[in-house]
Specification:
Chain A: Its EC number is 1.15.1.1. Chain A: It catalyses: 2 superoxide + 2 H(+) = H2O2 + O2. Chain A: Destroys superoxide anion radicals which are normally produced within the cells and which are toxic to biological systems. Chain A: One of its GO terms (molecular function) is manganese ion binding. The structure holds 2 protein chains of 2 kinds. Chain A has helices at about 1-15, 25-30, 55-85, 85-115, 130-135, 140-155, 205, 210-215, 225-240, and strands at about 160-165, 170-175, 190-195. Chain A is mostly helical. A 3-stranded antiparallel beta sheet of chain A has the order 2-1-3. In chain A, helix 3 runs antiparallel to helix 4 (about 85-115), helix 5 crosses helix 6 and helix 6 packs antiparallel against helix 8. Chain B is mainly alpha-helical. Chain B has a single domain, classed as Iron/manganese superoxide dismutase, C-terminal domain (minor pseudopilin epsh fold), CATH 3.55.40. Chain B has 8 helices and 4 strands. In chain B, the strands form 2 sheets. In chain B, strands 1-2 form a two-stranded antiparallel ribbon. In chain B, helix 2 packs antiparallel against helix 3 (about 85-110), helix 4 packs across helix 5 (about 135-150) and helix 5 (about 135-150) packs antiparallel against helix 7. The longest helix of chain B has about 30 residues, at about 50-80. The chains are: A mainly alpha, B mainly alpha.
């Protein structure tokens, strides 16, 4: 009888070591959260005429969704590779994770960077971001001009960013290639505004005229979100 | 007999004949947009007339214009001995010059169905494809898969000859194939930038890649292959 109980207890103990996937997994990895497509905070046509409904729909339901799907797939593959100790595959997967994970991260920020006009889209930022912009770029117009020039100049696919350099406590304008998040340009960079300059972000409406898209997008930029993020990080910097 | 084929220079020279003119006594050549060898609507339904028109008249033209601007600035920088400016201009030259090179080849890589578009390659290229990829279908499958996987704006899925073998390769942005190897000769390139297909295929790049083969001009690729092999 004691032997039977012992065997049963041993079986229970052994099962507890195994995750639901049936592998000897560190419980932390086992509960890896997958990504999901965030809802848009506004209707697909709410950013017209700056960005068409057709673009917003394709951009959100197709492009962003694909990044989420491929990212989750890559994470699952990563989990298996790590469990197998297959370091070659772990390294090989980084490209897919960076591209699709970056795509998810960037677009999740992008939807918050935009707002319908009647919800404040295009309204200039409040302080302290407003003063910081004037200090670093002379004026809001100066910043916009710089971002438009750099966004237009991106060779191929990428993003143009307004970021906060937490280390140097200053605003920066940066561009990244493909789906590289801003953090790839500096681990201390915090994205405030990102503008997608991949052709899919504007082509059905603006065709090759990227500069025109950049000129118009400012009428739906959600400065409130950017100002809130800036204020939060500025507070954190002050208290450190 | 030379094993390595430095034919990329020959290919570029061929482009220069049709689309350049001399500027200034120093002989800096500038470039002009080559004409399409067919009507804008001639590749339908594989590639829409709208795409062909914008792709040629806007995108390729912009590369030509900006390439010429960069070359003129380069000329000035070289004259002034401004090495910093010379180096700084390389990015604009590579991007816009590459855009011009790549698209000039691309228009020749395509042909209307009634002019042989989609017709499989015969002769030595056909045999080489079977040898290296098993079959034309095998090659098409490989190129379509690699084209679909390009992260961002890839170019140039090239079927190429190096040390007497065909290769499939991808390049980023407007990098010409030669950036992957000095002795690589482009035979077939497929533009996978979104502007090449978005108006018609939206985000479904694999569908564009599936259909573009119907208008690929294998005759041109065969001619280049035969020329480079001799």
């Amino acid at each position: 009888m004691t032997t039977v109980v012992f065997i049963i207890l041993l079986a229970i103990f052994a099962t507890s070591l195994y995750g639901a996937g049936g592998t000897t997994m560190d419980p932390c990895l086992e509960s890896m959260k997958t990504a999901s497509l965030p809802d848009l905070p506004y209707a697909y046509d709410a950013l017209e005429p700056a960005i068409s409904e057709e673009i917003m729909r394709l951009h959100h339901q197709k492009h962003h969704q694909t990044y989420v799907t491929q990212y989750n797939k890559a994470l699952n593959s990563l989990r298996s590779a790590m469990a197998d100790g297959d370091h070659s595959s772990v390294v090989k997967l980084q490209s897919l994770i960076k591209f699709n994970g970056g795509g998810h991260v960037n677009h999740a920020i992008f939807w918050k960077n935009l707002a319908p006009v009647h919800e404040g889209g295009g309204k200039p930022p409040h302080d302290p971001l407003s003063s910081a912009i004037d200090a670093h770029f002379g004026s809001l117009e100066g910043l916009i001009q710089k971002m438009n020039a750099e966004g237009t100049a991106v060779q191929g696919s990428g993003w143009v960013w307004l970021g906060l350099d937490r280390e140097l406590k200053r605003l920066v304008v940066e561009t990244t290639a493909n789906q590289d998040p801003l953090v790839t340009k500096g681990t201390h960079f915090v994205p405030l505004i990102g503008i997608d300059v991949w052709e899919h972000a504007y082509y059905p409406q603006y065709k090759n005229a990227r500069a025109e898209y950049l000129k118009n997008i400012w009428s739906v930029i959600n400065w409130k979100y950017a100002a809130d993020v800036f204020e939060k990080h500025s507070r954190d910097l002050d208290t450190n | 007999m030379a094993i390595r084929c430095v034919a990329s220079r020959k290919t570029l020279a061929g482009l220069k004949e049709t689309s350049s003119r001399l500027l200034g006594f120093r002989g800096i050549q500038t470039f002009t947009l080559p004409d399409l060898p067919y009507d804008y609507g001639a590749l339908e339904p594989a590639i829409s007339g709208e795409i062909m028109q914008i792709h040629h008249q806007k995108h390729h033209q912009t590369y030509v214009t900006n390439y010429n601007n960069a070359l003129e600035q380069l000329d000035q920088a070289v004259n002034k001995g401004d090495a910093s400016a010379v180096v700084k201009l390389q990015s604009a030259i590579k991007f816009n010059g590459g855009g011009h090179v790549n698209h000039s080849i691309f228009w020749k890589n395509l042909a209307p169905v009634k002019e042989g578009g989609g017709e499989p390659p015969k002769g030595s290229l056909g045999s080489a494809i079977d040898t290296h990829f098993g079959s034309l279908e095998g090659l098409v499958k490989k190129m379509s898969a690699e084209g679909a996987a390009v992260q961002g704006s890839g170019w140039w899925l090239g079927l190429d000859k190096e040390l007497k073998k065909l290769v499939v390769d991808t390049t980023a942005n407007q990098d010409p194939l030669v950036t992957k190897g000095g002795s690589l000769v482009p035979l077939v390139g497929i533009d996978v930038w979104e502007h090449a297909y978005y108006l018609q295929y939206k985000n479904v790049r694999p569908e564009y890649l599936k259909n573009v083969w119907k208008v690929i001009n294998w005759k041109y690729a065969s001619e280049i292959y035969e020329k480079e092999c001799n």
